[in-house]
Amino acid sequence: MISFTVRMKFREEDRQQIDEILRSLTQASRNEPGCVTYIPHRVDGDPDIVVIYEQYQDDDALDAHRASSHFQQYAISGLYQKMLERSVENLAAIL
């Protein structure tokens, strides 16, 4: 299982557009066969920061997600063009 969070900061004036992009990206990502979980969040107290929690079955599923047309459209050509900062935290499950 591959799990990670993506944290992004956006401008306040882009908030509505970011929400629309995230709704589309989330719906499409959740329909991918290898996607286990895809949940975007706003940080309580700082609504210009978005954290996405993602889980994929394996590396192939994550690669397919990143190669998908919806990722290219909504993430690369959408979110990435609007974000001010971005960081990724790879997670290791405690079993």
Overview of the molecule:
With 95 residues, the protein is α+β, with helices and mostly antiparallel strands. It has a single domain (2-91), classed as Alpha-Beta Plaits (2-Layer Sandwich), CATH 3.30.70. It contains three helices and four strands. Strand 2 and strand 3 (46-56) form a beta hairpin.
Which short descriptors sum up this protein?
Alpha-Beta Plaits; alpha+beta; about 40% helix; globular; about 100 residues; 3 helices
What's the quick description here?
The protein is of the alpha+beta class and 95 residues long. It is built from three helices and four strands; from the N terminus they run E-H-E-E-H-H-E.
Instruction: Evaluate the radius of gyration.
Output: 13 Å
Largest β sheet strand count, sense and barrel closure: 4 strands, antiparallel
Q: List the helices and strands in order.
A: EHEEHHE
First-residue to last-residue Cα separation: 12 Å
Mean pLDDT: 97
Give the number of DSSP strands. Answer: 4
When the domains are counted, the total is 1
By CATH reckoning, the class would read Alpha Beta
Strand percentage, roughly? 35-45%
Q: State the shape.
A: globular
CATH topology: Alpha-Beta Plaits
Number of helices: 3
Low-confidence runs: none
Strand order of the largest sheet: 2-3-1-4
CATH architecture: 2-Layer Sandwich
How much helical structure, as a percent, in the residues?
40-55%
Structural class: alpha+beta
